[in-house]
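Quick entry, no commentary yet.
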Amino acid sequence: MRIGKRELEPGRPYVIAEAGVNHNGEIGLAKKLIVAAKECGADAIKFQTFTVDEIVTDDAKQAKYQAENTGVEESQAVMLRKLALSYEDFRELKKYADEQGIEFLATAFSIPDADFLHSLELPAYKVSSGDLTNIPFLRHLAGFGRPILLSTGMATPDEIRDSLAALSPQNEVVLLQCTSEYPCPPEHTNLRAMETLRSEFNVPIGFSDHTEGIDASVYAASLGAVVIEKHFTLDKALPGPDHKASLEPSELKELVRRIRATKLGSLQIPEILLGTGVKAPTAEELATKKLVRKGIASRRNIKAGELLSEENIFIARPEGLLLPKEWPNVLEKHAARDIPKGTSLSWEMIQ
């Protein structure tokens, strides 16, 4: 499997500097992140591309870590609007990354976002842990025929199996061991789960690292991760949900250096980071899952008897009662009663 010009192989991980939303909605800061990631030796810089009104209901609550790290209690929609860049911004950033000589990647959070990124001819697509169960979205991505990097935070093996089944057998996939805690404590890192994923699903594995520091990523490289993703910021003191769990440039540079110097199986790994190898969500992840995974919700006010279609329902945070896999079974049904905008749907509302 390749991403751009780079072959993915154990012993030589593909290092992604995950800028995410650490540009704080400022394209100038995003460009500085691109330059810094290149100077640190990362293979790619990655951002998050989202259209707020397509991915979250207006009153969806923040995850606990988001409220704690921002110091502000507000809806996800309000927070995300402060952190959004436009499609034209991303088009400019892709060109800028090309000029700097570093691969540009992005996580899409909706089908329109994915279609836009496809127009940029990205070499691969990243799927966040929150969209692992978004089956219609995964099927859409599969049609692009590019490698998919799939984070597995909050996931069970059965959920991962369903996600892989939604993709085409021709799709190349890397499963990333991930714990959706920010920061992730050492005892929840569970590096052994990489081998669980590799043996269970027979695909290459990687590590999306939310721990503090760089050791866990280096150990993951020793265990055969072909992709290492680590949050990256210019300054941990900046406001925003992800800066505190990110590396600054000096740390990212050291991470890349140590990963490049690490040979397969060469390191004695602390048991606390290895964990049990059982792929199961932590208690903290179960709480986060309800807020950052998606379900089927009303896009606007819906009258009783109205036909349900893409015009009045959508797949959005929070998770709710009807999961995205039920999308084909909900379309073309009718509302059993009036449904206010932003309501998570249940079968009782549908006839």
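second:
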Amino acid sequence: MFDEALSKLNLIKTSQLRYHEKREENRLNKLMDRLQQSKVLKNPPIALQLNKEVYLIIDGAHRVSALEKMGCEYIPVQVVDVEDLQLDLWNHEIPIGKWFDKIKSNKNLLFTENELEKRMICKINYSNGEKLYVYSHYEEEFFYNWDYIVSCYTNEFNVNRLASWNTEVSNLSNVIFQFESLTLSQITQIVINGGVLPAGVTRFNIKGRLLNLEIPLSLLFDEQIDSGKWSELTSVWARSLRYYENSVFVHE
């Protein structure tokens, strides 16, 4: 079991990795600081292999981006199968502020109190139970407008991410943004077309993920990987992995 899990852990060139979502600059800088201090990567990012040369990062975009900015040539990535994934979207809870007036005055967006028979960007849930439905006036600007909305509040606040079923607003001055569902094939097509989703909207539940490996960053900066050192590390991990019922592998 453990050998099979570790066989999915690969060192992949940064040039072969593709993002499906934007990154938040503040979060990225904080993560870079932590990595530079610890000098290890505890939890490898997760990716799907799109073709022989290209991998799609589905979890750990900020880790990959931070390591790339630090000059790493390779990224340790756990490559998983589609069958190991369950895709969901996060709800975002944030305080109402000036950003809210800004998006409501945007002429490219349509706000209604009732659902329309067209693709919805999001539903806004208020603490009093009222709802607003948000649409793009023009379908071809759907993803641009979605990204615009999310960028307006992520630039001002730390977003409280909630499971998609949770629409209970915790504070009278807050709202919850609830996004329409996506399929993995839709996300893949967006990436193939050169696009990305807004930061922090996708949520992947992944079976059998590897955690707490503490991979030395010193291995990742050379153009040629030290295969002997990597084999030695995987042997150590194989002897000390523990399997938990919630389908993760944790190095202890």
